[in-house]
Amino acid sequence: MKDNEFIAYSGELFEIEWFFDTKGQSQPLDYYHAMSNSQKRKLLMLFKRMGDFGRISDKTKFRNENDGIYAFKPQPDRFLSFFTSNKKIIVTEGYIKKSNKLPQNIKDRSLRIKNEYFERVQEGSYYE
After folding, report:
1. What global pTM score does this model have?
2. Which residue in 39, 46, 69, 81 could disulfide with 35, CB within 3.0 to 4.6 Å?
3. CATH topology of domain 4-122
């Protein structure tokens, strides 16, 4: 099912991908497509910085949310993600920030997606 439509940015240090489910659907990619062009540019600049330089020092733009979950933060949107051992960052969730704290249900969903990703990769069904 894997093809280039799920690669958000391919940089020198990391490749950033949109997570897709077993039906080929991607919530974060759908969310991205619904954003304004200026919001898309903000996010893509963050992807480019992380992909090419391997870090974003500004916590207002990228933050460790614990449990292996990280947030790209193009205000007011949030994109949760995780790192893999093979230099990939998988974007699991896109949403609009409504409070100062990451909603637990969104983080829990991102953790479930992370587990699903690794299970599907291990069984050979994610990148077919």
Report:
1. 0.95
2. 39
3. YaeB-like fold (3.30.2310)
